[in-house]
Amino acid sequence: MNPVVNFFRGLLDSSDWPARWHCGSWSAFHGWLYIISDLLIWSAYFAIPVVIIRYISKKQDARFIRLYFLFAAFILACGATHFFDAVAFWVPLYRFNALVLAATAIISWLTVFYIVRYLPQAMSLRPVRELELEIEQRRNAERQISLLNAELDNTVARRTAEIADYKYALDQSSIVAITDQKGIIRHVNDNFCNISKYTREELIGKDHRIINSGYHSKNYIRNLWVTIANGRIWKGELKNRAKDGSTYWVDTTIVPFLDAEGKPFQYVAIRSDITERKKAEEQQALLASIINSSDEAIFSVDLQKKVTSWNHGASALFGYAAEEIVGREVTLLMAPERRHEEDVVISRIIAGEMVKHFETERVRKDGTAIEVSINASPMRDGDGNLFGASKIVRNITELKRAERHIMELNISLEQKVADRTEQLGAINRELEAFTYSVSHDLRAPLRIIDGFADMLLSDHAAELDEEGHRKLGTIMANAQRMGRLIDDLLKLSQLGRKEVVTVSADMNKIVRSAIDEQLGGYADREPEIAVESLLPAECAPGLILQVWGNLISNALKYSAKKERPKIQISSHVSGADIVYVVEDNGAGFDMQYADKLFGVFQRLHKPTEYEGTGVGLALVHRIISKHGGRTWATAEPGKGAKFYFSLPAKQRHDNEPTNNHGTR
Amino acid sequence: MEHDEIEILLIEDNPHEAELTIRSLRRNKLDGRLLHVSDGVEALDLIFPAGLPDDAPLPFHPKVILLDLKLPRVDGLEVLRKIKTDARTRMIPVVVLTSSREDRDVVESYQLGVNSYMVKPVNFTDFSNAVGELGLYWMIRNLPPPIGHKSPSS
Question: Is the pLDDT of residue B56 over 70?
């Protein structure tokens, strides 16, 4: 039998030995001291690994864990030897005991091996005190670090807040956009959106040229890009286009942000809206160009009479270029005896007044004098402080010359009018003398012819035969006819010199007396004259009586040869006139001669047919014309004629009744 | 015929006109005491004889003066003015006998105080009748002012 095999077969066999209590002589005290001590050692050795395991399990960063376990196993094994030593008092398992001892021995040596191996390392672990000291130092350092950290946090927070404030301020004050190095928009602020009228979403990711207005030259834009691409800041004014097509001006600063290699990786553009200023500048430029291109001389002076600006018109008018006169006294333009005028002008300007159309004389650079009209107005700065005067000077030399010319013309015209009036007066006086002499001198010989023929006829009747009577009769008839012609002509000429004084007249009454006058010679065969109720008119009754007389006598004369002469007189309103009509059923006339009817000495019938001088209708025409009316006639040969005349329903009152001896 | 017997003074420059006037008056037998002078100077010399003091009574006082206006040297209106401005002659009736119907003649004559103004018709028959009537009126119908009585001076 192999002893080793027997050993393991009888490992738990106690039959080979008596219980220890029965081996030797154990007093109870001795035995129990032995047993209890063994159990206490075993329990203590059992407790130690439990504590170690617990400790390790709690302390995760513990080093040499294997050693701990080995140590725990070593202690546990030592304990187990004591346990089985105590158990041997009752159950003598010496084989098992020996196995446990062997295991304990192995573990113990393993432990020794480990300790030998790791002790130097374990020895390097600093002592607790040192560690504590270090811990203390570390704690202090940590405290300091955390203080510093807090301070740093504080600073960072403060700086962050500051940066936020700057950003806020920038966002409030400026139009900000950030683009990458290719010009693609990466960020825009609200101001940018507001002014460009695009939303942020429409802008981000877009090329910056979205707001390009196309206003600037290629060179200008190229210069911009070259500048920022080289990492330099670009400043300038840009005109951009908003989404709705309107344009705006921005004062722009573009700052390139450079990477570690010094290459720009993004650009920050900070702009401010200068559209209003630009507009004002444009307006100002426009005004300046208007002023400069004006033909009027426009310039300004300060309160010390020094010229401060000078436009082209002024150069053209006075012959001085702006460089020659700006800064010099404006009295340069004045003859010495007129220099005081500027004091007057300036004192009025200082009093806040304007000087308007001040006409005076000025001297050009070449020494010639020009007549000018000056307007001067006070110029004030933004605070209302007077700092000078603007002057607009107009050359009125030609105007004045023309005025003088017109005046001379007027004078000569007046002279001409006076001369003509004088000539007319002379002609009139001659004419008057002529009619006066006609009146006096032409009638007398006729009367003498008629008178002497009559005397011959009565004194020498017996000596004359019938033919002699006839011839004398012809002489007398013609003398008398000549007399009537002269009388009528004189009437016509007198009428030309008479003023027409109108009154409101009863036309029926006038016509009645005209008929009475004319019917004197028709006692035997009274013609039929029908008179309608006539409209009244404003007229000179004496003259209108003559008109009616002539028209009625004409009607009577030309209808006298009819079986039943018939005359009709009527009136009607026509527009603003009253028209009176005398109609007869007499000889009438051919209408182709109607225009000759009212001319002097115009007759449509032979004197042998109808008696007449040819003045009657001319007189009618003259009288009616003087009343502002018209005369006309219609007729048919053999059937009768209608004679019309019109009078204004209301007379113009430029002929107020005057005490004129000619109308008595 | 003495001056103080003259009843009609005819002042007329044209002898033929004068002849017609006188013939017309003769038809009514009014030409007997008629004196015809042919211009204004002659007429004034007759009415206001030279050398007579201003206030001396005048020797000549016809019943009517027939005055033509257009006269050589001193014209009719001037003669009329002299007669009508002298207190001694003012009351002598003066009739203008003229061819003129010019207003200014008529008006001025009346302003100077003419007693009648007649425009001579060209027709001799009418003329003769008119002058006849005129003569009859002034010589027979009209009562002349008393001779030698001076009108109060104005």
Answer: yes
pLDDT of residue B148: 61
Contact A37, A31 (CB under 8 A): no
The domain spans of chain B are: 3-141
Q: Which is more confident, A601 or B14? A: B14
Q: Is it the case that residue B65 has pLDDT exceeding 90? A: yes
B27 touches chain A (CB under 8 A): no
Low-confidence residues in chain A, pLDDT < 50: 653-664
Cβ-based contacts of B70 with chain A (< 8 Å): 440-441
- In angstroms, what CA-CA distances link A271 with A180, A254, A274, A522? 17, 8, 9, 118
Are B103 and A441 inside 8 Å of each other by CB? no
A586 phi/psi in degrees, rounded to 5: -90, -145
User: B154 pLDDT band (50/70/90 cuts)?
Assistant: very low
**What's the rounded Cα separation, in Å, for the pair A444 and B133?**
20
Structure tokens at A45: 């050795």
How would you classify the pairing of strands A307-310 and A264-273?
unpaired
| A chain contacts of residue B103, beta-carbon cutoff 8 Å | 494, 661-662, 664
| CB–CB contacts below 8 A, A to B | 74
Q: Which residue of B has its CA nearest to A451?
A: B124
pLDDT digits (tens, 9 = 90+) for A495-543: 776 777 888 888 888 888 888 887 766 555 667 788 888 888 888 888 8
SS (H, E, C) A500-568: CCCEEECHHHHHHHHHHHHHHHHCCCCCEEEECCCCCEEECHHHHHHHHHHHHHHHHHHHCCCCCCEEE
Instruction: Indicate if ipTM > 0.85.
Output: no
Specify the CATH architecture of the domain B3-141: 3-Layer(aba) Sandwich (3.40)
pLDDT of residue B152: 58
Residues 6+ apart with CB under 8 A from A371: A359, A360, A361, A395, A396, A397, A399, A400
The span from the CA of A218 to the CA of A197, in Å, is 25
